Model the fold of this input.
Amino acid sequence: MRESAEITVSIRNLSRSFGAIKAVNHVDLDIYSGEFLTLLGPSGSGKTTVLRIIAGFEKPDEGTIHLGGKDVSQLPPYERDVNTVFQDYALFPHMNVLSNIEYGLRVQRIEKTERKARAEQALEQVRLSGYGDRKPAQLSGGQRQRVALARALVNRPSVLLLDEPLGALDLKLREQMQIELKELQREVGITFIFVTHDQEEALTMSDRIAVFNQGRIEQIGTPREIYENPQSAFVSEFVGQTNKILFEGKRINIRPEFISVSKSKESGDRTLTGLLKDAIFVGASTRFLVDAENGEQVISVKPLEDLSIGDSVILSWESKKEFLA
Amino acid sequence: MTLTNKARYALMSLMGVGLAFIYIPLSVVVINSFNASRTFSWPPTDLSLKWWSKAAANTGVRQALGWSISAGLTATAIALLLGTCLAFAVSRYEFFGKGIISLLVVLPISLPGVVTGIALSNAFTQQLGISTSLLTVIIGHATFCIVVVYNNALARLRRMGTSLQEASMDLGANGFTTFRLITLPNLASALFAGGLLAFGLSFDEIVVTTFTAGPGIQTLPIWIYNNLFRPNQAPVVNVVAATLVVFSVLPIYLSQRLSQDSTSGGRF
Done:
């Protein structure tokens, strides 16, 4: 898909400093039409600044942004064909839900009956039909989130920017919204650029993930590439959990779920013996903590096994699951 | 914190004494404006509206009321315009000397009125060579009226943050449209509250007014002051004082209701 798809957003050599802090440090990034791209990183890694520069709220110190082939680096936000879903939703408190959604069409002088029809349709799209008369203050967090989404999507932008939009929701609602957002994105076919610090969220929703650290992109790739083949120590630690084991004089990295723990059975070409120190049941899986013979501590995450603490166990894994970074 | 019953009653009676000390004399003035007796025998034996009609017919009072209202309204209008602009500058932009400017704007509210009065009077007549008039009263009042508008607007702008404006621009509105459709409607109640307060402050101001009023210009408080010790004017003074209470209390009460969240600016 990627080779044939056209590039919607093209970022070249982008830099932005705040005082002495280099928030964004020479970033290059191409975003393809219709893809769900996540900017993932810890707070202060520059991901939100990149988003705000694409939206036009911040000016870059250096570098350019092309949107649909046109250089928009110096254009104000209202002349860019992108819309944003804000972290705090930023719904207009003095307007009802329908007026909020109509706002973008209204300031672009779309005729009244058309904008009303489109706003109603957008409300339906986020499953909030009938809520048009309410004020934002009368809605729950999840509903406000949907209104913010509808308000942005009704303008049919070429790119939708989402700044940690699920951060304020509780876990259950967040997981539900992740699925809904992904479905909505497929449905409308708009390019989504999604900012989050939650690696699970990124892995769940994205076509591609750009992992940010200290103003730079450490790695960019599909969720599987990022997870199974992290290119740097930072990525392997930030995305998922990693065992760093000294094995036959070499330091190797392996994910906990690729290591089997058993009393006798080996499954894989690498083995290590040890003592089971702890087993923590976490529902679908169990976290086994093993003190290996070579003095390393190894974590394995596997379905519950019939083991008791203090047992001698064999740790085994496939060498091809190891990664070097 | 819990209080013993004894402490509770002691505090309540202290508060009662304090409030009584403020409000009993005020109510005496208001009641006396309806007291039919010329000598204000207490308690009033007969109530009447004759002093009110007498006051209404008094040209000095009517003129003073007119001057007070026009000075109050104009000073409030100036304060709304300048105070809002200043609040925007301070809340939205970073510039050199911002802290000092903010302090300088708020300072007139705590400067002794007599100092402001002397300084302004001196500046108008000596330096600028313009004679004092109603206009100079208005400028004098505007110096402290700006403060309450500024404080109210600033508090609201800080609470509003910048994301509503960003959202509006993101949705395609330019700066002017954003101000008209988003910022102003969300600022309006704070501005209204600030304006009411400013009018209330101007309406009962006496010190700055004394120094800046031109010959023959009497605002209501000045008229009271000038007529207080004329025995045959005493009944009318009561009526004017009662009017002044209503004109000053009502705006402040309303503005408190409107801006429970923003700072009031003090000096009532």
